[in-house]
Amino acid sequence: MLRVFVDSGSSIKQEEKEQYGVEIIPLRYLMGEEEYEDGLDITMDEFYCKLIDEKLFPQTSLPYLDKVEEAVTNYTNQGDDVLILTISSGISGTYSAFKTLFEGNGKVTVVDTQTAVAGVKLLVYEINRYRDQPLEVILEKVYALIPRIRVYAIPETLNYLFKGGRLSRTEWLLGGLLDIKPVITLAGGKVKVAEKKRGLKKTMKWIAEFFTSTVCTDYPVYASYTHSDENLKTLISMTDEKYHANMLFDDLDPVIACHWGPNAFGFIYVE
To answer: Residue 211 belongs to what H/E stretch?
Structure first.
């Protein structure tokens, strides 16, 4: 039997794991003196209270590796194959840690998804389409889909991406000048600036038009946000209604919101 693990950077919630058919490995984050396991210890409202009201800048870290090893080997010891999807190695050390942890276990395959949040959800969606096929076929489908996944988002501020080391100082400085609103993407598994426009509405328009010209409607579209979905709804209104039925809203988990900051929003889809 195939068992699929994802880390919580996939933004698959604990209450959604049966729906997606996965086990969730919670990443960790530190706020002030307190450490939390993503999606387990505090609610989203409590997290944003600490982030916005208490102005605590979070730091993220790897999951408890002993817990991961125990959960995975429980399955492999009973003969199951385990497929672990991690968020991109370009933004997290999770992939490298898991590769090292399971390098001697031939029943475990660790995949660097080169994406994050709903990009991982799209890969799980693909796995579930072929779940009755051999692992080699499933991996072929996964690796074929990875380069087609697109992430385009607008953060309210670049401070969190910059302080978290996911954005260069030059990109951070440029984003703060002249009301320039950058479109942030994951390219080659790393955070990049895809486009820069002056003013929020022009930036939204660019995403809406680019999305419309490139989206593959055979897959869901994830409309993602942190804390507030007000701007996201405006962005959706700029696209043709024929795409709306295929859209799924996703309020990103704290460990990702730590880097995006509050009130970021965008689309994640298959090209």
So the answer is: helix 200-214
Q: Which helix (H) or strand (E) holds 237?
A: helix 230-237
Taking each helix axis from N to C terminus, what angle separates 200-214 and 230-237, rounded to the nearest 10 degrees? 50
Torsions phi, psi for 261 (to 5 deg): 80, 170
List, for residues 197-253, the tens digit of each pLDDT value.
Answer: 888 899 999 999 999 999 999 999 999 999 889 999 999 999 999 999 999 999 988
Residues 44 and 123 in one domain: yes
Among 24, 102, 25, 93, smallest CA distance to 60 is for 93
Give residue 86's pLDDT band: very low, low, confident or very high (50, 70, 90).
very high
Q: Which of 146, 164, 197 is the last residue of a domain?
A: 146
**97, 66 contact by CB (below 8 A):** no
Q: What is the CATH number of the domain that holds 233?
A: 3.30.1180.10
Binned at pLDDT 50, 70 and 90, residue 175 comes out as low
Strands 149-154 and 265-270: antiparallel
- Nearest-angstrom CA–CA distance, 68 and 101: 9
132 and 187 housed in the same domain: no
Residue matched to tokens 């604990």 = 14
Range of the domain at 194: 148-270
- pTM beyond cutoff 0.90: yes
The pLDDT, as a whole number, for residue 179 is 65
pLDDT value, residue 127: 98
- Please say which residue of 127, 146, 165 terminates a domain: 146
CATH code of the domain covering residue 29: 3.40.50.10170
Q: Which of 86, 94, 158 is nearest to 123 (CA)?
A: 86
